[in-house]
Amino acid sequence: MENLNIEKFNPTIIELNSLVVKSKDVDISNLVEVKEVRIELRNARVAITKQGKEYRQQALDFQKAVIAKEKELVAIIEPEEIRLEQIEENAKLEEAKAKRIAVLPRRKEMLAEIKDNVEIIDDEILEMDEVAFSAYLNQRIFIKNEADKLALEERERKLKEEENKIIREKEIKEAQEKARIEERERMEKQEIERKVREEFNAKAEQARIQKEQEIEKKRIEKEKVAEQERLEKDKKYQKFLKDNGYLESEKENFIIQKSSSKIILFKKVGEINI
Are 255 and 269 spatial neighbours (Cβ–Cβ below 8 Å)? Predict the structure, then answer.
């Protein structure tokens, strides 16, 4: 330990401060003295560094020696300490196990109340302390709750699907019934429209026939009137010819001149050759 006394670090702080004060009086006016003082400062620094390195190596060697001695001394007592510590630990484990055996029935009841059908042997339960068992119990409860939640959601989903299926089937039936009604109404409308068209066409045809009949009747009547007029005119004409002595056998002696409104009869009164 004496060799590691930090006070033996030379030179002293006073000596180094004196050297620095001395160097402050040196300037560019005397370059030879500048060099000498600089070398003196350098030598002091190198000496300090060298001595510090030697002290560090001594400290390192001492540290290694202390560590080796520490291991040697600890190795004498540590095995027996570990053995006794293990005895205490085993005793604690046995005591804890005895306590867990006492609460085993209650633990099994608590696990059975979850009703998740998970099997676990007694030895596995006995290996758990209160914290471990509580964590295991909570985990089982959480998983069961999640499973129940998923099962409930699945039932609700299936129920919703069934409800939607019933609604869709009802909508399909209603749509089909509506389509049938609309089709029936359309057919009825078409039948009504057909009857209306037929009735209209029949009336139109009847009107056309009636009109044609009326036209034909008027034409016949007109023809009759015309024929009557013609006959009357012919009768009048024949009377006119007869009254004026016209004979068909002597028609060469007559000239008949007709216009739209009158007939002029010319009769040869005589003939002479000259």
Answer: no
